[in-house]
Amino acid sequence: MQLTAYTDYALRVLIYLAVHEERWVTIAEMATAYGISKNHLMKIVHQLGQEEFIETLRGRRGGLRLAHPPDHLYLGEIVRKTEPHFHVVECFHAPTNRCPITPGCRLASALGEARDAFLAVLDRYTLADIIQEKQALAQLLKLQSIVGME
């Protein structure tokens, strides 16, 4: 199973905010650190705000920060809210399914079980688990920002 770039970037935004939990962070700062389009991050940040994963503050001293402590943000929930769907194969989406063997095939059952196991594992991890090496992550993000500016 592969997550969309959108979900990948949403997780990176949350990681960045968790690493820099003590201050407000700008979209431009994250875009530079990750080498991601600022416009693309704006769409992601908007949804993360709507889902109440982050807080946003407009204005000169504004920015972004986590809306909850990192140990209250579960990866499974984040992935479920940022992925457009979990149609691993065509037959998972009945309206567009054109597979002729669907009625007699059990592949969907096996893949559905695998998808559910994937999400169950993510449900066991929080953002805090992912940023245990906070200092190392902060250093890597700082180095990436410097390299990106050259």
The helix tally amounts to 7
Q: Would you tell me the overall average pLDDT?
A: 91
Quantity of strands, as a count: 2
Q: Report the major sheet.
A: 2 strands, antiparallel
- Share of helix, binned: 40-55%
Shape: elongated
Strand content is 5-15%
| SSE string | HHHEEHHHH
SS-based class: mainly alpha
Low-confidence stretches: 146-150
First-to-last CA distance: 36 Å
Radius of gyration: 18 Å
Read across the widest sheet, the strand sequence of neighbours is 1-2
In short:
With 150 residues, the protein is mostly helical. The protein has helices at 5-19, 27-34, 38-50, 75-82, 107-123, 127-130, 134-149; strands at 54-57, 63-66.
Structure description:
With 150 residues, the chain is mainly alpha-helical. It is 54% helix and 5% strand. It is built from seven helices and two strands, in the order αααββαααα. The chain has helices at residues 5-19, 27-34, 38-50, 75-82, 107-123, 127-130, 134-149, and strands at 54-57, 63-66. The chain has a two-stranded antiparallel sheet with strand order 1-2. Helix 1 crosses helix 3. The relative contact order is 0.17.
SSE blueprint:
Blueprint: H1 5-19, H2 27-34, H3 38-50, E1 54-57, E2 63-66, H4 75-82, H5 107-123, H6 127-130, H7 134-149
Antiparallel strand pairs: 1-2
